[in-house]
Amino acid sequence: MRTLEYLLGAPELRATFWPPVLVGLLVAALCSALSVPVVLKRMAFVGQGVSHAAFGGVGVALALGLIIGAAAHGTGLLAVVTLFCVAAALGIAWLSDRPGARTDTAIGIVLAASMAVGFLLIRAAAARMRASGLPPPPSVESILFGSVLNVGPGDAVLAAAATAAVLALLWWYRRPMLFWAFDESASPAFGVPSRAMRSLLLIVLALAIVVTMRLAGVVLATALLVLPGAAALELTDRLRPVYAIAMAVGVLGVAAGLVLSFEMNWQPGPSIVLALTAMFAAARAASSLRSRRAHPQEKPA
Question: How many domains does the structure of the chain reveal?
């Protein structure tokens, strides 16, 4: 098996393939924990909106890099994309908090505007970079799908730090966050600020998406923020088990996708998405089977 050869073979292979595996598993744990409140609050489209806002952030970073020569690569790119995503998340919170406003409308506005800005700026930056003899910017495909196999030990450290920070923040605010997620209308009466919880979740989502997008692409970020929580909620409605199941689905889905990528020589991002989709389908089938057994149809006399 190629997987065993890559992970347990020569030292050069282990040094090449173990960092991507660790990064993938850490990113899975990071996004899977957030997927439960995202699905509970019917905010799956929020994850997609903020993740695609990162596309606009890449365009802004490249444009700034051409102007001031500092933001087009490395830390500058990450900083600009992070600020852009946090601003997009807060913009969604502000637009959806107005009287009579709809969250899906706010997300659609931010998503469409960010994608348009990002596409135009990336194209313009690419033309100017070619004319100046500079290295080309990242392709649209690499931004959307990424390649977790290209990460190194430094990226694993970044993923570990981001995962620890987000999970610690979620643990610290777990009670008000979950109360708000289950009953937003009643949360202010019990001292839980609804607006603050919404903004906090969106900001944490933005940070998680930036890390995931940088390491694995926008599409995988969206999948990890929806499918693990959706699969877990198909299997249980109890609070603690649903988080454990969501994180297990995310980690196992990433592991299965990477194995599929190694063995079939497929791109890792789409392979992981397909594995997560298959696990959700299996959870949905198991839920339907359990429901039919619990409520069998009465046979006619």
Answer: 1
